[in-house]
Design goal:
The chain has 14 helices and 12 strands. It is of the alpha+beta class and 365 residues long.
Length: 365
């Protein structure tokens, strides 16, 4: 017998499943990410419409102890693409086509050395309903968005929608590879560094560059469907550099909702809210940052500054002292502590500032 090969396929030896999954093949089928599981008794197959989803699934199998495919061979798990064949060498499978009648045929894989007698396919499968669409071809279509784990594209020439089912939650759309997203992300990081997002920028008028950077970051957020916080964080930083504080606050709020333990999101949100003079909210954000990193000078310094703005001088001085102790070289935190001390001194009664000690020296109180 043999199993269906359609779009992108992960084929696994049944013996490996039995050895590594409690409950064997029935439990493995139950855990299948989609409705594409099928087995001929020797091998089983799970199908995908996106290569990135198939590779992510193989990584999951490897974490369970399966031996994934490598350039040296595919000992237990094989990756097979429709029409293109094996992505890595595999000496225990054969791939071919079978005629189904009425002019229909299908691609099939079977164990090397055994007889191909029958095609096994998932329940309700029909030939010709699905085909693999290369990434290059998808990029020529209009991307409409992702709805319930399905990437939707529009073929304007044919006036038809094209659907790509997904199994990776939060993955980039099928027309964008992870490598492409990472390349664009790294480019944005380099540009943000150059324009002073993390350190003071070189002298010059960078506003045009900042506006362009903002649009690039915004497009990456759109292309990745807000699936990851990184592009949103970069868009927020670009908005902050342009002093678009309302939008920056909204973007950083979204980042912290997606990743509540992402410290940089809370640090940036504190800055944006403080710039809007929404100090109650800024204090809550700053305290969340300190809770995540109680010994970080930047988190402590942000909280001290927000407390100072609200006139909470005793708390501000205590936190600012901790910030300076955490990083004695941080000049900003030293400035915050000095400002707190000045404010504390001014609120003391005038007669306490004039008290003298035994040598007629002014007493430091």
């Amino acid at each position: 017998m043999g199993v269906l090969i359609e779009c992108v396929n992960v084929v696994i030896r049944n013996a490996a499943v039995t050895a590594r999954v409690a409950g064997g093949i029935p439990e493995f089928e139950r855990q299948c990410l989609n409705g594409t599981f099928c087995t001929d008794g020797e091998i089983c197959r799970i199908g995908f419409m996106s290569m990135s989803d198939a590779k992510a699934y193989i990584e999951t199998l490897e974490r369970l102890g399966f031996l994934g495919p490598t350039p040296e061979g595919s000992r237990e798990v094989a990756l097979v693409s429709q029409s293109a064949g094996f992505d890595f060498p595999c000496d225990w499978l054969e791939v071919g086509r079978v005629e189904l009648g009425d002019g229909q045929s299908a691609e099939v894989a079977w164990v090397h050395g055994t007889e191909l007698s029958k095609l096994v396919a998932p329940p309700h499968w029909k030939p010709g309903n699905m085909r693999r669409i290369p990434t290059k071809e998808l990029r020529e279509l209009e991307f409409l968005g992702t709805n319930e784990c399905v990437d939707v594209f529009r073929d304007k020439a044919k006036g038809e929608n094209v659907y790509v089912g997904r199994t990776q939650k939060g993955a980039p759309p099928a027309h964008l590879s992870n490598a492409m997203v990472q390349e664009r992300f790294s480019s944005l990081a380099d540009e943000l560094t150059r324009l002073g997002a993390f350190e003071n920028a070189a002298a010059g008028d960078h506003r045009g560059d900042l506006a362009s950077l903002y649009q690039r970051a915004k497009q990456l957020v759109v292309d990745t469907q807000e699936a990851e916080p990184g592009p949103l964080q970069f868009q927020g930083i670009a908005a902050r550099l342009l002093e678009q504080w309302e939008e920056a606050a909204l973007l950083f709020r979204r980042v912290t909702e997606m990743r509540p333990k992402y410290l940089d999101g809370w640090l940036e949100l504190t800055w944006a809210l403080a710039s809007l003079r929404r100090f109650d909210e800024a204090e809550r954000a700053a305290r969340n940052a300190v809770e995540l990193a109680p010994d970080r000078a930047d988190a402590l310094g942000n909280l001290a500054a927000v407390l100072l703005e609200q006139g909470k001088l005793d708390d501000a001085r205590q936190v600012a002292q901790k910030a300076v102790m955490a990083d004695p070289a941080d000049q900003r935190n030293k400035a915050v502590l000095a400002a707190v001390n000045r404010m504390v001194s001014r609120r003391r009664p005038w007669w306490r500032r004039l008290l003298r000690t035994e040598g007629n020296d002014v007493q430091s109180v």
